[in-house]
Task: inverse folding
């Protein structure tokens, strides 16, 4: 079983401020890693995924970026947040047959 | 692009009633997974189906994969208040983990 550490749990940021969300994985090596955003009461929108160190695939053009500096570390960033970036951000690790999720970060941009 | 639709979007049931959510794809699915997300929580893996026509059971939950591998269903028998949450189907395709639109289940005691 894997453990996904994601922090912070909640975040309130002003428009135009930078963002950095970090996700680390325990219990496996070389997993596929994912960032999702979930609007209130809605589905999971895939933002980025990575199959290895330094390998990032972007699914939705936007002002967010992702990086994977280490095998079990996945970072979601923005240089300038927009109001529309508010949402529930989830990091996931997929290995073999199932995905494990972090607890999520609830981001409110004000 | 790849789309996995789920119906219904919402379902309200009385405790003890049955519940079914359906997952439909425009393309053939290599596999289908099901996850449950409790309110305020994160998705938790329930099961994976791989074979055409496959049926798996977990206590009151029955999962089916269509013969053409383009649809799947999750059926809950005699719902309980602990079944409340959003149920997602998902597919892993060329390293992408794509989730369906989800069905939110509310159970009234």
Result:
């Amino acid at each position: 079983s894997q453990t996904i550490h994601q922090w912070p749990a909640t975040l309130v940021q002003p428009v135009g401020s930078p963002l950095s969300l970090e996700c680390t994985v325990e219990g496996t090596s070389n997993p596929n890693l994912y960032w999702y955003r979930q609007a209130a009461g809605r589905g999971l929108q895939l933002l980025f995924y990575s199959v290895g160190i330094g390998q990032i695939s972007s699914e939705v053009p936007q002002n967010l970026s992702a990086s994977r500096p280490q095998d079990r570390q996945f970072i979601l960033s923005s240089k300038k947040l927009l109001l529309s970036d508010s949402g529930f951000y989830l990091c996931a690790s997929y290995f073999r047959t199932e995905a494990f999720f972090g607890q999520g970060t609830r981001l409110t941009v004000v | 692009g790849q789309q996995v639709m789920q119906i219904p979007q919402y379902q309200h049931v009385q405790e003890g009633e049955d519940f079914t959510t359906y997952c439909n794809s425009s393309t053939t699915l290599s596999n289908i997974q099901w996850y449950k997300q409790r309110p305020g929580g994160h998705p938790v893996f329930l099961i994976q189906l791989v074979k055409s026509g496959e049926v798996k059971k977990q206590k009151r939950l029955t999962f089916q994969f269509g013969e053409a591998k383009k649809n799947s269903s999750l059926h809950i028998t005699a719902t309980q208040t602990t079944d409340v949450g959003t149920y997602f189907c998902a597919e892993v395709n060329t390293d992408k983990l794509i989730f369906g639109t989800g069905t939110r289940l509310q159970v009234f005691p």
Observations:
- Residues 37 and 67 of chain B are 27 Å apart (CA to CA).
